[in-house]
Design a protein that fits this description.
By secondary structure, this protein is α/β, with parallel strands linked by helices. The protein contains 8 helices and 8 strands. A hairpin with a 4-residue loop joins strand 7 and strand 8.
Length: 205
């Protein structure tokens, strides 16, 4: 569904294998112009033995290098669900404690409306969205959620790196526990976006 979602926007999709040698990943990086960190099940432990994390970290480091050296944004990254959590950890300099692991009990398979922040409408992610669709996302249960972990809004205020890196665009509340989680973010200076919800599921699942 991630492939179909990207292709629907005109992209050509190339898989990045997390267990490939890093030199292979680095060569591939310079042949592509963006990356999606998908959802799924994988450890986000910040250890050298965790190939999933170390490969994502290298992609993030290379993206940072390219984006710093360009006058305009040139290598976008989007993270969905697990990828959102991964992007949050990477944006916090590898601090795993920004993630509330297993904190959410009632949001698996639940469609939800987005509680937009005051920054959402003027954000790069949402500014060109039609008023009709923006209103529907705010008022109707359209976003697919499939997660047990997440990042609490307070973390984006208390963690200096997260606060400096990302703007929170929307939040949601776990209906079972009453615990709030951040559902949409975008970088303040880079072409990075993240959704705890699954934009690819509506059309393709």
């Amino acid at each position: 569904s991630y492939v179909k979602w990207a292709e629907a926007s005109g992209a050509r999709v190339v898989p990045i294998h997390y267990d490939a040698p890093l030199n292979v990943t680095e060569r591939l990086f310079y042949q592509i112009n963006g990356d999606i960190f998908p959802g799924g099940g994988a450890s986000l432990d910040n250890t050298t033995s965790n190939l999933f994390y170390s490969t994502a970290l290298r992609i993030f480091e290379l993206a940072e290098k390219v984006n710093k050296n360009q006058e305009e944004d040139s290598f976008p990254i989007h993270g969905t669900c697990l990828g959102f959590q991964l992007l949050s950890i990477l944006g916090a300099g590898g601090q795993e404690n920004v993630l509330c692991d297993g904190c959410y009990k009632g949001v698996e398979g639940i469609p939800m409306k987005l509680n937009f922040t005051q920054d959402a409408r003027d954000s790069r992610l949402f500014r060109n969205m039609s008023d009709v669709l923006f209103g529907a996302l705010h008022n109707e249960n359209l976003t697919s959620n499939e997660h047990h972990s997440g990042v609490e809004p307070s973390m984006f205020l208390s963690n200096d790196l997260l606060f400096k890196t990302f703007t929170v665009l929307s939040t949601n509340v776990d209906p079972q526990t009453g615990r709030e989680f951040v559902s949409t973010i975008e970088s303040k200076t880079r072409p990075y976006t993240g959704t705890q919800w699954h934009p690819e599921k509506n059309n393709f699942e």
